[in-house]
Structures are given as C-alpha cells and as structure tokens.
Amino acid sequence: MAQAKKEMTFEQSMSRLEEIVRLLESNQQPLDETIKLFEEGLKLVRSCDQTLKKFEKQVDDLLAENGGEADGNV
After folding, report:
1. pLDDT tens track for 41-70
2. pTM to 2 decimals?
3. Are the CB atoms for 17 and 48 separated by under 8 Å?
C-alpha cells in the first residue's frame, strides 16, 4: 500500500533544492534524469516562494496590528 507523500518543510525544501543544484552542476546525470531534477527543482522553487510570501504577509499583518509599519523590507 502506497503512503501519501508528506509535505516538506521550508527547510527541507531548501535543502533538497541545494542538493538538486549540486547534482545539476556536476553534469554527471543522464539527460532524462537531468530533466526530472530540473522539474523537481522548479516545483521546489515555486513552493518556497509561496511559503516566503505567506510568511511575509503574516509579518506584515502582525506589524500592522501592533502599530508597526510594513514597508516590505522585513
């Protein structure tokens, strides 16, 4: 029986992304594996970007609620 794939944390995603970059930079994988790694990397970049935007909004909301200014340089 196959288990559902657990969603990675931001830190796990970044670690995997760094690993993928190292593998791609080594240029030692067959072309089909390179394409799969590149695709996985793009998905991780999108996921990390969404997570960062979510956290940035949370910080902006907290600052606004507490009288701070959310200037986008958090």
Report:
1. 999 999 999 999 999 999 999 999 888 765
2. 0.74
3. yes
Cα 31 to chain centroid distance, Å, stands at 24
Tell me the helix, strand and coil percentages in the chain, rounded to 5: 70, 0, 30
Q: What is the mean pLDDT of residues 5-29?
A: 93
Q: Are 31 and 38 in contact (CB under 8 A)?
A: no
**Positive or negative CA dihedral for 46, 52, 55, 60?**
negative
Spatial CA neighbour of 29 closest among 43, 44, 19, 16: 19
> DSSP state, 50?
H
**If we measure between CA atoms, which residue out of 17, 3, 5 comes closest to residue 51?**
17
